[in-house]
Amino acid sequence: MPSITKPRRRVREIKGDFSAKGLKFGIVVSRFNEYLTRQLLEGALETLKGHGAAPSDIYVVHVPGAFEIPLAAQRLIRKVRLNAVITLAVVIRGETRHFDQVTRETARGLGELSRKSQVPVILGIIPAENVRQAIERVGLKQMNKGREWALSAIEMANLLRTLK
Ligand code: INI
């Protein structure tokens, strides 16, 4: 269980733990660069389930591109009482002239959504200069970024329960 320690002479530390049992998660994933986002999705799903989340407590929403993620995430949060949302996309500068617009607007929308909805929204948008860099950043099996972001979602979901 997450905890607020009560030591006498030490600072009070507030932490979220890494159990996903009984928690509900949303994942909003972009179809753009699907060969890469699919790997992120697999990593995130394995981690959530590995930490105790029930498959029926995980809602996966597919959107065309990163730019559509904030709106879909907002609707999902309205529809389902979620403990955290993970967003997954890869934006490659070499493939779009509006790289800066897409990455900036998506990140801004997600930050705003997280604070307004009071649901942790994990920023899993990978900006990359080119395909090679994108592949490196998505990560291999062990270093998969989807895993890392799923852990952040679990930790934040538990932390916010403590900071209610
Ligand atoms: N969306 C992405 O998720 N990644 C990209 O690399 C990308 N590029 O290169 O353009 C991208 N564009 C689509 C954008 O997110 C929207 O779906 C589109 O503009 C329609 O609103």
Q: What is the H level of CATH, i.e. the homologous superfamily? A: Lumazine/riboflavin synthase
Name of the CATH class: Alpha Beta
Count of domains: 1
Order of helices and strands: EEEHEHEHEEHH
CATH architecture type:
3-Layer(aba) Sandwich
User: What overall form do the CA principal axes indicate?
Assistant: globular
Low-confidence stretches: none
Instruction: Determine the strand fraction and express it as a percent band.
Output: 15-25%
Helix content: 40-55%
Q: Overall pLDDT, averaged?
A: 94
Terminal-residue CA separation: 14 Å
**Rg over C-alpha atoms, rounded to the nearest angstrom:** 16 Å
| Structural category | alpha/beta
Q: Main beta sheet: strand number and arrangement? A: 5 strands, parallel
Bound ligand species: 5-nitro-6-ribityl-amino-2,4(1H,3H)-pyrimidinedione
How many H/I helical runs?
A: 5
How many β-strand runs?
A: 7
CATH topology: Rossmann fold
Features:
two-stranded antiparallel ribbon; about 160 residues
Describe the structure.
The protein has 164 residues and is α/β, with parallel strands linked by helices. It has a single domain, classed as Lumazine/riboflavin synthase (Rossmann fold). The chain contains five helices and seven strands; from the N terminus they run βββαβαβαββαα. It has helices spanning 34-50, 69-79, 99-117, 131-138, 145-162; strands at residues 3-4, 14-15, 25-30, 58-63, 84-92, 121-122, 125-128. The strands form two sheets. Strands 3, 4, 5, 6 and 7 form a five-stranded parallel beta sheet that branches. The chain has a two-stranded antiparallel sheet with strand order 1-2. Strand 3, helix 1 and strand 4 form a beta-alpha-beta unit. Helix 1 crosses helix 5 (145-162) and helix 2 runs parallel beside helix 3 (99-117). The radius of gyration is 16 Å and the shape is globular. It starts with a strand and ends with a helix. The model has no long low-confidence stretch (mean pLDDT 94).
